[in-house]
């Protein structure tokens, strides 16, 4: 499927048309290999429940900032009790998560299924207003809406990293939350880069001594 999408995107790009990205249902059930494939090939995924059982893979999703659109009401009916849903843990650890609907005609009871997801999540999962605004901001960032729409909803600088990309008058996400997310991620990536450098230097030193 990924190879076919690449070929199709090349064909459409040459003709000035929009392109497609891979956003599969992934990690709701089935083998962990689905999540590994999603990590390698996807723009973002839906569900991702099984990441809670594989901390290393969850960490890779965090480092790559791969979006996870979660549907707790659907999961509650099929796979995982609402109170055990890992969405709060994912959010607190800095993964890019959002709320979404999944088969709204089957799992929702109102005419506004997405509002239903947000309302129930706020009450059952005890999410703060800041958490809810961050989920909403993530949702827009993960979406396939045109750039001009994202600029309207999030601000003209939304693609910049850290606080520079946050227009609090539109997102309602405090700068201190955005700053914390960005600085923590940069620190993690810097630590990994530094450790890799030390390891490579150590390997070279050992090789030189053996010679």
TrEMBL record:
Keyword set includes Kinase: no
* Chain segments annotated as coiled-coil in the UniProt record: none
| One Gene Ontology term from the biological process aspect of the record | IMP salvage
Q: What is its EC number?
A: 3.5.4.6
> What cofactors does the UniProt entry give for this protein?
Zn(2+)
Q: What's the domain of life for this entry?
A: Eukaryota
Q: Which UniProt keywords apply?
A: Hydrolase, Metal-binding, Zinc
GO cellular component terms, semicolon-separated: cytosol
Q: In which pathway does it act?
A: Purine metabolism; IMP biosynthesis via salvage pathway; IMP from AMP: step 1/1
Pfam short name (any one): AMP_deaminase
Q: Where are the transmembrane segments?
A: none
Q: What is the protein named?
A: AMP deaminase
